[in-house]
Amino acid sequence: MKKIKNFFSLVFPSHWIEWILCIVFLISYGVLGTYIALHYRIIFDDRIPWDGYFSFDNYSILTTGGGFERHPFSNYFFDGIRRLALLISNGKKDSTFRLVLAWCSNISISLSLVQIFKYLKNIIKTPLKVNLLIVFFFAFFTTPILLSFTPETYTYTLFLLTLFNYYAALKIKQDKKIPAIPLTLAAISVGGLTVTNIVKVYLPLLFEKKLFWNFKKIGNAFLRVLLSAVVFALLFLYRLDFNYMKIFKQVGEQYEKFSKPKVTPIWDMISSWFFGGNMLFSSFIIRDYNNLKGYHYKAIFMDVFSSVGPYVFVGLILTFVLWSYIKNFRNKLVQILMISFLVDIIIHCVLKFGLHTSYIYGGHFVFVVPMMLGWLFYGYRKSPKMQTFLTFVVGLLFVYLLANNLYRMQEFFWFLEKYYR
Fold first, then answer.
1. Is the dihedral of CA 385, 389, 394, 399 positive or negative?
2. What is the mean predicted confidence (pLDDT) over 92-104?
3. What's the rounded Cα separation, in Å, for the pair 146 and 134?
4. Choosing a second label site near 322 at 20 to 30 A (CA), which of 83, 108, 243, 250?
5. Residue 280: which of 413, 115, 157, 401 has the closest Cα?
6. What's the average model confidence in pLDDT over 168-181?
7. How far is CA 175 from the centre of its chain?
8. Neighbours of 135 (CB within 10 A)
């Protein structure tokens, strides 16, 4: 009974301020998602197979899970969501169907923000006003806004990764190891939605207390990883009828498809899309598409930044993240966050996988930003002047973020009004 209670207090709000925040986010994102679902076809339309907005493949995700090579178990997860939506909509893929999809996403993103607040409050232990500033700052990033009504793997990956990071931080802070069963469940859920993220599940084990000082502890950690990896691999292969060569073929095809150089300079793709696109909306590009069956439709994408302001914003955020890393370099939990972030930098910026649409991958890594901001405040907890300076600068960045993203959302709604009524 106690374990069940602990599970619910871990996953869901467990304090009055957490409940208030969760309700505020549910209402705010809910209004946005409900309006879009009821008035526009953009969230789901049977005729649109891909890229209706910002390269989110809603149709593909809901019908196939998005492909086994990248998302090995997501088809099971999204089958459940699709069936729930069809049950509530009486089997029709109408506005009610879209509304259910939007609210499932809304709940996931709202709970993700609660997990970030819990991390700030219970792990870093920064003051309440700082926690609220950082959480609301993050809430207006493009990633939470877009994912709050989008049925995608990234939507649920954001929740699972924030939850696991909070859980792992609690264990490490208490000098406890992560048990085999939670580790296996995390590997299946996180890696099942996006296979490369499974690496992030194993990272915290490297920072368990005195792991490398004791061969018994090393062996125990190895067995836990081995158990979870074997379970994951067997489930993965079972889905493929144990035809493992299919994995290598599909991975090769995907890499070839999503890593081709684009006309845009690499540095601008990294700054405008990988880093900036997950925080700030840029200007938009509209393109013509067809579903190969005679239906023509419009798709909207993010362009690179066209003015100095967004580059300065991104530069300041990255400066704060690196500053926080240097200031807290000896902190195990900070190392976990930054190594996790490095995994995505290597995949998208070094290997260039999906770099041209990397503004959609924020659910995999952008939560590191508010957490690292929290650690920066922690690093100067004994310096009121620095705390005031950081609060002032983040407050200014928040105002800029708010103005930019609300303005750009008007352009997004213009697109919906013109092409997706």
1. positive
2. 97
3. 19
4. 108
5. 401
6. 94
7. 27
8. 20
Beta-bridged to residue 53, according to DSSP, are: 56, 300
In the block, tokens 């009004």 appear at 417
Under 8 Å between Cβ of 165 and 71: no
Nearest to 141 by CA among 321, 288, 280: 280
Backbone torsions φ then ψ of 53, nearest 5 degrees: -150, 130
Nearest by Cα to 407 from 311, 269, 310, 317: 310
Within 13 A of 386's CA, how many CA atoms are on the CB side? 12
What percent of the chain has a predicted confidence (pLDDT) above 90?
Answer: 80
pTM higher than 0.85: yes
Question: Residue with structure tokens 């240097």?
Answer: 326
Whether the predicted pLDDT of 241 surpasses 80:
no
**Cross-strand bridge partners of residue 289:** 297
At residue 167, what is the residue type? Y
Q: What's the rounded Cα separation, in Å, for the pair 117 and 17? A: 10
* pLDDT at residue 313 greater than cutoff 90: yes
* Number of domains the chain is built from: 1
Is residue 396 a contact partner of residue 404, using CB atoms and an 8 Å limit? no
Lowest mean pLDDT among 46-50, 238-242, 270-274: 238-242
Q: Which helix (H) or strand (E) holds 297?
A: strand 296-302
- Full residue range of the structural domain in which residue 334 is found: 2-419
Phi/psi at 61 (nearest 5 deg)?
-65, -45
Q: One-letter amino acid identity for 398?
A: F
